[in-house]
Design goal:
Number of helices: 3
Radius of gyration: 12 Å
Structural class: mainly alpha
Helix content: 55-70%
Low-confidence stretches: none
Shape: globular
Number of strands: 2
Mean pLDDT: 91
Order of helices and strands: EHHHE
């Protein structure tokens, strides 16, 4: 089993995805998946990365 990433590590991973069109698509797919599972949408003022981090933290995917 792999160790959970810290919030800061995961945030850096997600930010690096913003650099490429494929990475941005991946972020949008994560948003859609988390919205479907959680039954909520990203608030208008929340960043995409913040929304993903909150969802992952709630699911126990991020440590520390």
């Amino acid at each position: 089993m792999t160790a959970k990433k810290t919030l800061q590590q995961r945030e850096k991973d997600l930010q690096s995805l913003l650099a490429t069109p494929a990475g941005r698509d991946e972020l949008q797919q994560l948003e859609a998946r988390y919205s479907a599972v959680g039954g909520r949408v990203r608030p208008g003022k929340a960043s995409l990365i913040s929304f993903i981090l909150v969802c992952e933290r709630e699911r126990g995917l991020i440590g520390g």
